């Protein structure tokens, strides 16, 4: 009522035209009510207009995020509550966590804005910098992988059955498909997948995090996902332009047609190591001279619309790198071409200079074809992207050819961490000249990166442990503390893999006390653990501690998901702490004998010439570097390298370098890469670096070798019970809420990490023991296959498929048996036929009943992630009628020993109507219920609903040469009209 009165007050206060002014409150109310009713009616009409189709199960993942468990599990919640009271029955299906309230169903699309810790005040009380702006060019475009997760069937057909299309319509998701927009993937065509030119292509695109597909020229992939009508590639790239020119005629015309239809351009490099000296493409009116030796390069300032990163007025005055006489120059004869870069033929070049200009900048070494000849825009470079100017030209070409869709933002966020301040033996500790050099380094880098300050990781206990000179140097650092930003690096540089973990909190807080005493401006929100131990692989104790402290919000590591190549490192957020990927500078192992400052000059020169660090700056919008001051003698060179590289970036590019507060660095990172918010866990036992970081006194986690993945209501409990009869199979520990299930990969339990997952299993009795788990909702959960593949790449997956009609009805009977209100309110028929006008709960319940039974879609997702020999598909009917033969077979598939004969373990129980274990008896009353037959209207509806999906399943199974389950064959036979 209060709100209503406020509304009326508002109405009265609002300026109105004279006629309205005279209206009474009653009139205002009636008019408002009328307008409301009209609005409702119009909305209903609009809904009704969109008629319901059998394929129209909306898998609206985003809505699930906010609706939480009780909405998603509509119809299941009451069952959960009941089950919690009655522990004698087994767990309800799909209960993903301890309590309904805690659960956030995570079956969501990852393009939601990540939840990041709030911005915090900088060391001086304010942010050092405003957060960098995101460039519109960098707005996210649908990555192919996401599409593959949500449209697996279409992807599978596209990949393996390109001549066919699925019979069923795609199951709708919230992903909006713009069928004219190519996916954000690049097709790189090579003459052979083994070509040496593959690596530079991987580096060029990979370092910009652009997804690539490689293809051989003789076997180009199908370019459009037919069933979705989605063009697959945003750009076609050739490592060697001659491969494009030499494409087989039909392939060329298909490719060209694709490019023209979707406005896709071609970016090509050249590789003259294997080709003749001079070539003429008559068709393209382009002459090319290969193997030219060149000096100097300048860009064409007239190609204004192409230059973005490049500063076109800059001139490179030195000889171009020429290990194998690898440059190609272009001599076009058509107005469609525009030179992009010019060079000068070296005076000592031995090749024939017939028709080649010898004047300064007289030859063209990069060119653009504006499509005047064949309607396709191209950028062609006279070498690979190795040379730094070529790299920049290619990046700008890429941005232009993809209309900005694959362009990186123009800002580069830079953070340089100097770990181990005060750590080290006397000889390599900070001397006065080092301290001075660091202060100067800050000042010099500030010319290019406003407000830049080195970040120093300090270890208080080791302060003044060095000799006299070091003492002086370290004292100087303290005197100049305000010149830097400091972060906690643990008091004694404790290596957590050998230090008792209960010392972490002491080590963190003592260091902060030290900082206070010395008046160091510490950013307490950012912290680095020595050797990054505890961050990845995660030590739960470290994150516990950070959670207790409450203020640590960001850290970084080299280790996730792997170390090499550098550009493959990623970030993730775990328990509120943002973990950023860390970049490493070169270690100048060869220059160690140099005087350090002399070596520094060398590092700077190299960067100025576009060395390794320069490319990191070009391709990495948010960079956190790791360097050392003392414990690696060579680490001290890094400061020179940063001077060099920032100067070079400032000189050659229009990129804007920024040095914000570390929390803003982290926030910027995850805003740029929201897909990375959720980590993908992998097995530390499989990676030597991770193994090194694992605690010395803690055994590596042991994971299951077999997963019964579902789907729900297909006999998964019977299967796991039977498997357990084998002396060497050991299932997960029972859970008070989830009972026999784990549900790690398909719920927010995944956030608990791998230690938690491993703790769900008993210790193996001996080497023969095979751990396994059953979680029936894994099968249809869109993220699960990828997560499983990442952690358990060799796992064997068991999938049981019974008649989807039976499966849906069994779920309804499950609800009924637990007096779930939904099943009391609605009949089975009402639920499965719910349309757009139905209440939301009914729509969600409909999804709950029908979605899992769309086997083809879910199976395709597993098949895209696992080889077929890791999947064991069980005919659900056979499991009921002849479980012994299924169980005998599966032992072979898993490779367990000894093989047991299940005919001696199982017997048919006439009363139960199912096979039961001789020793442990039949399953509980919740499994194998007796209930009335499905009504014929429902049966007819479901038969129609699943018709095309089942047809797709047949195609899919045939494609992997798997026999069809008996119910599927029977269904097909019954649908063939008899004459
Ligand atoms: N041997 C044996 N004993 C009992 N029940 C058997 C057996 N084999 C298969 N089934 C079928 O399993 C159905 C229950 O499937 P799930 O165990 O996968 O259900 S759950 O998802 O774990 O809740 C269950 O469904 P309902 O018949 O609806 O109860 C059975 O049809």
Account of the protein in words:
- It is a single chain.
- β17 (485-488), α14 (504-517) and β18 form a beta-alpha-beta unit.
- The N and C termini lie far apart (70 Å).
- The chain is α/β, with parallel strands linked by helices and 979 residues long.
- The protein contains 32 helices and 31 strands.
- Mean pLDDT is 84; it is low at 1-24, 43-141 and 589-594.
- It folds into four domains: 2-49; 178-401, Class I glutamine amidotransferase (GATase) domain (Rossmann fold, 3-Layer(aba) Sandwich), CATH 3.40.50.880; 413-677, Glycoside hydrolase/deacetylase (TIM Barrel), CATH 3.20.20.370; 706-975, Rossmann fold, CATH 3.40.50.300.
- Strands 2-1-5-6-14-13-12-9-10 form a nine-stranded mixed beta sheet. Strands 15, 16, 17, 18, 22, 23 and 24 form a seven-stranded parallel beta sheet that branches.
- The longest helix has 25 residues, at 25-49.
- The structure holds 3'-phosphate-adenosine-5'-phosphate sulfate.
Bound molecules: 3'-phosphate-adenosine-5'-phosphate sulfate
Helix content: 25-40%
Category from helices, strands and their pairing: alpha/beta
Number of domains: 4
Shape: globular
Going by CATH, the architecture of the largest domain would be: 3-Layer(aba) Sandwich
Count the E strands.
Answer: 31
Please state how the strands of the largest beta sheet are arranged side by side.
2-1-5-6-14-13-12-9-10
Weakly predicted, low-confidence segments: 1-24, 43-141, 589-594
